[in-house]
Amino acid sequence: MLIRPFGWNEFLIIVMAAQWTIALSAIAFAGGGVGGLLIALARVSDARWPRLLATGFIRIFQGTPLLMQLFLVFFGMNILGFAINPWIAAAVALTLHASAFLGEIWRGCIEAIPPGQREAATALGLRYVNRMRYIILPQASRIAVAPTVGFLVQLIKGTSLAAIIGFTELTRQGQIINNATFSPFMVFGTVAAVYFVLCWPLSLLARRMEVKFSRSTTR
Amino acid sequence: MTEAKANATVAAVRGTSDLAVHMEGVNKWYGAFHALNNVNLEVSRGERIVICGPSGSGKSTLIRCINQLEVIQQGRIVVDNHDLTAGGKNVDLVRQETGMVFQSFNLFPHMTVLENCTLAPMKVRGISKVEAEKTARRFLERVRIPEQAEKYPAQLSGGQQQRVAIARALCMNPKIMLFDEPTSALDPEMVKEVLDTMIDLAKEGMTMLCVTHEMGFARQVADRVIFMDRGEILEMGPPDTFFDNPKNERLKNFLGQIS
To answer: If A94 and its partner were Cys, which of A28, B71, B90, B109 is the partner (CB 3.0–4.6 Å)?
Structure first.
């Protein structure tokens, strides 16, 4: 068996694999956005059961490694009779993971809005849905932008674990190329550099929004 | 005054009672703390009530029960013939008919003054935007800040913010106004502009319940002054007897301390 050298071609293959990392991140982020909003609303609900269920969901996903979550969804789907499909398993697991974390982040943002805002809206006769829609969520979302982008960075890096269940994204592509070229430092250096190029601008953006927010929160 | 007359006619046509607020045997606890202790109070339409007392005496809790920002554990509250204790739709109706002004203004910081004033009329009453803005500008004129309509709350002084809060409440065309220490968070030089707005409102015949430490205001506009301590109403009466001839020992003490 021939060992091929790590060249321009191999480099491009790795860089191109970033599209699957981006696609998986985007799906998990979009799904987690919807799930996270539901979890956050359930967490601040006046009703006991939604609150308890959402808390349990968050505790489970915060208290277990992402890799185990991927394994459980991947093998669990098989037990439930679905064909093994790394794409669906990775998307479902990361969506659930993102829902839990975004739910907890956004709960904090909702609770950071002074109770007087809810009281004033209530006193004006606005009911729950309108209070949330026009008063609480618009204010909470301003605080939420920076930590949400911060979590997106975590999520992008987290997708690398999907390589272990055989989902061919950036990291998995690196492993494949490494098996052929046997120059791990070059290969994984390239992989790391691509992650960095994806994540660093987002980190900068998050920090900048944090500064902007802290300036604009004077009430 | 015409508004008061119109209200009176409506009440007569409906055959409703003259009471704006009726509280009967109201009790409330926060854990072991007895926040309201067997409170009985009847407020007639058009009446101006001032409630005073030391901090923690239950005066804020009392008026917050009237629009059910606080839920009571015992007793009965009827506001404008809607029995709050019966729950359900009554709570929504009562909230639509009572305006509330808070110590900390509680304007919506992400909306302009005009948007603050038009949101509830549009979303709760279903009034068109054009109509709601017309009403809002009229009330902003009445609280003497029409030129601030496009600004955000953070760009206004405390006194201006509180006047916007009053205008915002009035835009819902409430029958009862609740004031929860409206001047306590203001710098001294801004207290007067807010009190003047409240005095105007009182002259127009609005039913008002005000928690305040402004005794000058109480003397000038109140029909009755109430003294509360430890969740109980201890004394209640017209301002002159209340201030000049108080009977309750704790009230005498209290008046001695604040004057």
So the answer is: A28
